[in-house]
Amino acid sequence: MSLALTTSHVEAPAPALAPREQEALRHIAAGCTYLQTARLMGLSKHTVDAYLRRIRAKLGINTTAELTRLAISLGL
């Protein structure tokens, strides 16, 4: 009988998100559109888009559903 040892999958810590990235993520996860988020944050929707693209690039996220799951796991 052989015993196979498996290693548990441990995720590397996520890169830190800037406070404004966290705020944009919180609004999107709450169901706001890019335009609504921009208005709430006093930004252009292009800046909100840039924040969310940076988050996606940092964390390898592709969908809004994944962004929402991230926001929930971070307690945002």
Q: Which term fits the overall shape?
A: globular
Radius of gyration (CA) equals 16 Å
Biggest beta-sheet profile: none
Regions with little confidence, pLDDT below 50 for 5+ residues? 7-13
Mean of residue pLDDT values:
82
E-strand count: 0
Give helix % range. 55-70%
Task: Provide an overview of this structure.
The chain has 76 residues and is mainly alpha-helical. It is built from four helices and no strands. The protein has helices spanning 19-29, 34-41, 45-59, 64-73. Helix 1 (19-29) packs across helix 3 (45-59), helix 1 crosses helix 4 (64-73) and helix 2 (34-41) packs across helix 3 (45-59). The longest helix has 15 residues, at 45-59. Residues 7-13 have low confidence and may be disordered.
